[in-house]
Amino acid sequence: MGVTLERDIRERFRRSGYTLTSQRKAVLEALGESRGHPSAEDVYLLVKKKNPRVALGTVYQALSVLEEIGVIGAKHWSESPTRYDLNVEPHLDIRCLGCGAVSEIPGVGLGDLEDRLRAATPYEVTHAAVVVEGLCPACRAAG
Amino acid sequence: MGVTLERDIRERFRRSGYTLTSQRKAVLEALGESRGHPSAEDVYLLVKKKNPRVALGTVYQALSVLEEIGVIGAKHWSESPTRYDLNVEPHLDIRCLGCGAVSEIPGVGLGDLEDRLRAATPYEVTHAAVVVEGLCPACRAAG
DNA sequence: CTCGCGAATAGGAACGATTACTGATCACCG
DNA sequence: CGGTGATCAGTAATCGTTCCTATTCGCGAG
User: Fold this and answer.
1) pTM above 0.95, yes or no
2) What are the chain A neighbours of B127 within 8 Å (beta carbons)?
């Protein structure tokens, strides 16, 4: 599993022409370690633990490259920085307006939505995302 | 139609406890006049034409209030400021990665997606949005 | 294995969007 | 009308992100 991932990622780097550097590997590792959907700052702090010399800008650039070659996904929310995710399959994420936590909604896909929207627009669709906001059980209880 | 809208909006203001000021009316008018999905800056410039003394911060605060009481909708994109919209019904908007224009995808709703996600999560869902990115015909032709 | 070159990095400054602050002004109930 | 709490104009500050430049690194050619 780890080896397969590694091989796929190396392949994507080779095809894209980008260099697979230690910093970019570290960013990928940090994303794997973190449970939720970390922000660039979260990733930066994790990477910094092992290599204190990394720059925040490098993390942003690495995340941008990794997203471009299709290894990670990014989602944008109100009142929150961009969150990153190793899951690149179309899926639904929900963010709690109380505590800010982002988690995946398991078992619910986009269905035929992507096909329907491709049929209904003359645009060349490159990317579709669903962002959901609400209150998690704990925050709902806290009022 | 205009009168009905007006009445509904007054009602929403009354119920929420917010004040219906001339600036907030002007922001609503600007949203009605503008064809597409304006940013806060776009709205600010439109409002400023009639009342040059309005402050950008006031426009932001007005947009925030109007969104809170359900009179307008907001959507967040990558590489673009937040765009606002008089259409509060669930619908799909697409943004061109080339020219930045945002437009509605007509005839495509969320379908049963909202029901399915409510059934699949313990969260209290308050808001769901679909953001789509791609290339408009003109930008695709321009390569 | 070593060299050399173009890509990537560290560190920090700059930027754009948005929010926060403060004294003056306004909307609205009585 | 008159008072009062909400809102506003103007501006400073914040936050996430991008940009810049000299230095370092990855990696293919030899």
Assistant:
1) no
2) 132-134
